[in-house]
Amino acid sequence: MNLDGDPQRASELCREAHVRVVARVAQLTDADARAASLLPGWTVGHVLTHLARNADSHARRMSGALDGLDLPKYVGGSKQREAEIKSGAGRSAQELVADLEASELRLEQVFERYITAGAPNGHFLGGSDYGVWACPAHRLREIEMHHVDLGLGYTSSDWPEEYVAWDLPTLLAGVPERLASSDDRRTFMAWLSGRGPLDPETKLAPW
């Protein structure tokens, strides 16, 4: 399964994921939005704001590619990303949900335009480590991971099989560089090959 190279299928899975998350937060109260998410230091409002701005960032890259422009996800880089999340997190539940729905709709419209145009300039990186044609797949990762992070009842057991089939190998491929020591790498390798237990003290760096 290579959703990086199949923007049409990845965008279809994204649309389905968008429907699921909007349905889950549709009746969110202001108190719910202020509650802690499963991400340290982030409320539900932080996660929803991030999902909305992330949708905008992918739409920016893909719209740019349609015009022959190699644009970054965030013009102001990580500082812009952090500022937008912080400033938007405290809004009412109604505003948060409306923003998420609108940003997802804009992105889905860009998906359609991009795929109809034949996925042009898919190699553009925009300062990222994946081409524009992989934007739908990476948006899918964001929506599936952060749907769980909301802490509202959606769990990893709800992840679609196609998503898991794509992202599990991707995450596994990055494990070696996330293990801090050679001992950790050996222990993890032994566990993967069925030749030892996984040390509960083994820590993976953030990805």
> Main sheet?
none
What is the helical fraction, as a range of percent? 55-70%
Average the pLDDT over all residues and give the rounded result.
Answer: 94
Terminal CA distance: 21 Å
- Uncertain regions: pLDDT < 50 for 5+ in a row? none
How many discrete domains? Answer: 2
Secondary-structure class: mainly alpha
Give me the oligomer status. single chain
Overall number of strands: 0
Q: From the alpha carbons, calculate the radius of gyration and give it in angstroms.
A: 18 Å
- For this structure, what is the CATH homologous superfamily of the largest domain? dinb family like domain
According to CATH, the fold-level topology of the largest domain is Four Helix Bundle (Hemerythrin (Met), subunit A)
CA-based shape: globular
Q: Total number of helical segments?
A: 9
* H and E order: HHHHHHHHH
Architecture of the largest domain, according to CATH?
Answer: Up-down Bundle
The CATH class of the largest domain is: Mainly Alpha
Strand content: under 5%
List the helices and strands and how they pair.
Elements: H1 7-25, H2 30-34, H3 44-66, H4 77-88, H5 93-116, H6 135-149, H7 161-173, H8 175-178, H9 182-192
Task: Describe the structure concisely.
The chain is mainly alpha-helical and 207 residues long. The chain has helices at residues 7-25, 30-34, 44-66, 77-88, 93-116, 135-149, 161-173, 175-178, 182-192. The model has no long low-confidence stretch (mean pLDDT 94).
